[in-house]
Amino acid sequence: MAGKTIAEKILSAKSGQDARAGDIVVASLDLTYSHDGNRPLAMELLESMGTAKVWDPAKYILFLDHHPSPNAVSAAAHTKLRAFARAQGVQLYEMGDGISHVVLPERGHIAPGDLAIGSDSHSCTGGALAAFTTGVGSTDMAAAMATGQLWMRVPETILVRCTGILPRGVGAKDLALAIAGHIGADGANYAAIEFAGPTIDALSMDGRFTLTNLAIEMGAKAGLIGTDAVTEAWLDGRLKRPWSHLNADPDAVYAQIVDIDAATLTPRIALPHNVDKVVAIEDLVRTKVHQVVIGTCNAARSSDLAEAARILEGKHIAPGVRLIVTPSSRDTMVASMQSGVLATLVQAGAVIATPGCSGCAGGCHFAVPDVGENIVSTANRNFKGRLGNAESFIYLASPATAAASALTGWITDPREYAA
Amino acid sequence: MNIAGRAHCFGDDINTDYIIASKYKTASLDPRDLTRHLMEDIDPGFGQRVRPGDILVAGKNFGCGSSREGAPLVIKAAGIGVVVAPSFARIFFRNAINIGLPVFICDTAGISTGDDLAFDLEAGTGRNLATGATIQAAPLPKVMINIVRDGGLAAHIRKHKTFQLA
Ligand code: SF4
Question: Above 0.95 for ipTM, yes or no?
Answer without folding.
Answer: no
